[in-house]
Amino acid sequence: MSMNEQNDIHSMKIDGTPFSVLMNQAASLKTAQLARDRKKFDSYPKFIQNTLYHGHGSREDEKLVINARNIDIQLKNRFSVAEYLKNEGNKQYDDGNFVLAYSKFELAASVFRYLESTDHEWKSKGIIDMDIKDVHFYDDTTLQGESIKKFLCKCYLNISLTTYKLDDYKQSKLACDEVLRMDPSNSKAYYRRAKARLAPVHAGALEQEEALNDLSVAMKLNSSSCEVRRSYLTLR
To answer: Which of 66, 115, 151, 162 is deepest in the core (most CB within 10 A)?
Structure first.
């Protein structure tokens, strides 16, 4: 289409309203509709939202995750892939590559907890809550289920640590929330959540009170931690 033809279309009017205005209104309505249809998806932390895309990725580490999610793969082989990715994340973290570390921890966790769409055309149609499944294995009360839960907690704690380093305090806090849903007595999650609450420049009295509560619980759960006690006394 030539530039003149494009200008002619944009200058058209329908019932007195410019065509370009109608197009913008239609796009806004579509965006609003999609937002209504994906409220639950949007409520997930980014590191869980991203697991939907890992199932369709083309990178080598994403291919490992896709294969590990296969229902025919034995649990020990899934753990082998997940542990490998987590260890790669640890290496990147130690080298100061926090973005890469975060990516590896996110991938490692997504072996055992991920989102998937029942609509194979979701990429072109958009993400709709009714098509999204939250696939996870940590509700299992067997020893295997407990092992998966412990592994996920380690990954989410690592995600909390790396996102804190990247100044993404919201995701750091949300990662701790995920840990505490699975393990309400995890003192490290309470401590890191307290730090994430206090870190933003806009943190005020409410955040300080919530952080103090978290530190109080962390101290009761792990009274031997000098770091937790020092933070609690400083804030108090």
So the answer is: 162
